[in-house]
Amino acid sequence: MHTLNELKCTFPARSENERFARTMVCAFAAQLDPTVEELADLRTAVSEAVTNCIVHGYRDSGDGTVAVTVRLLPQHMIYVRISDKGCGIEDIGQAMQPLWSSAPEEERAGLGFTVMQSFTDSLTVRSRSGCGTTVIMRKKIQQGAAHDGG
Amino acid sequence: MLELKQEENQLVAMLSGEIDHHRAREIRETIDFAVREQLPPIVILDFRNVTFMDSSGIGLIMGRAHLLEETGGTLEVHHPSAQIRKVMRLSGADRFAVIRNQ
């Protein structure tokens, strides 16, 4: 699909970058004039995906790189691709089950994929054991909704 | 970023800013230390100054609920924003804590 605008960024897989990553994606999406709720949904979904790369992809080691691509597509669609070159997911079906976590000792609620799925319009996960994981999310921004009733 | 207030029979944790995986560990360690030391009958997590929370916050709430089960206390969540309530609804976190908005 024709890309109208694009932002690409890579950063070290350290937890202090989680905030930077979700803020950056939301700053890019702001050009579509989203509602407060749409922006909060996007912020939360991106936070989950980036945290997954850091906590699960690289096992909280602080090594490795997270890559984020954000695109503005026609019809007010935001495309977000978040990937790592970490350990990968052996069983995607199991990982996407609500409340299942491979790191319960870290008090991960096991809700990352559930949040991504619920707060965006589509979620695609590709992973290969030992090679890494890529998450692609799409969210449609209801143009003009921010001004309804105003 | 986290202020603990010990009142008569309750411990109030005033949370603030953005709660994510990066900040959750320090918050939970601070609260757990106080809970184990003071054994309060009620622990209140006050979210009025929290501007963002992802599912790391759900882990924080569920983990404290389990700790209080152990110590015989109850957990209350006060003043969560619309965004925080939405994340909590997904997880069914209302089963783990009493939620109050007043």
Most strands sheet of chain A: 5 strands, antiparallel
Any low-confidence stretches of chain B, pLDDT <50, length ≥5?
none
Order of helices and strands of chain A: EHHEEHHEE
The CATH class designation of chain A is Alpha Beta
By secondary-structure content and strand pairing, the structural class of chain B works out as alpha/beta
How far is the N terminus from the C terminus of chain B? 22 Å
Low-pLDDT runs of chain A: none
Instruction: Supply the CATH architecture of chain A.
Output: 2-Layer Sandwich
Instruction: Identify the strand order in the major beta sheet of chain A.
Output: 1-2-3-5-4
Oligomer classification: heterodimer
Structurally, how many domains make up the residues of chain A? 1
- Report Rg of chain A: 15 Å
Q: How helix-rich are the residues of chain B, as a percent range?
A: 40-55%
Shape of chain A: globular
- CATH fold descriptor of chain A: Heat Shock Protein 90
What does this structure look like?
The complex is a heterodimer of chains A (150) and B (102). Chain A has a single domain, classed as Histidine kinase-like ATPase, C-terminal domain (Heat Shock Protein 90). With 150 residues, chain A is of the alpha+beta class. In chain A, strand 4 (122-128) and strand 5 (132-140) form a beta hairpin. Chain A has helices at 17-29, 36-57, 92-95, 112-119, and strands at residues 5-12, 65-73, 77-84, 122-128, 132-140. Chain B is of the alpha/beta class. Chain B has helices spanning 21-38, 55-71, 82-91, and strands spanning 2-6, 10-19, 42-53, 74-78, 98-100. Chain B has a 5-stranded mixed sheet. Chain B is globular and about 30 Å long. The model of chain B has no long low-confidence stretch (mean pLDDT 93). Classes of the chains: A alpha+beta (150), B alpha/beta (102). The A-B interface holds A 15-16, 18-19, 22, 37, 40-41, 43-44, 47-48, 51, 54-55, 99, 106-109, 111-112, 114-115, 118 and B 18, 20-22, 24-25, 28, 52, 54-56, 58-60, 62-63, 82-83, 86-87, 90-91.
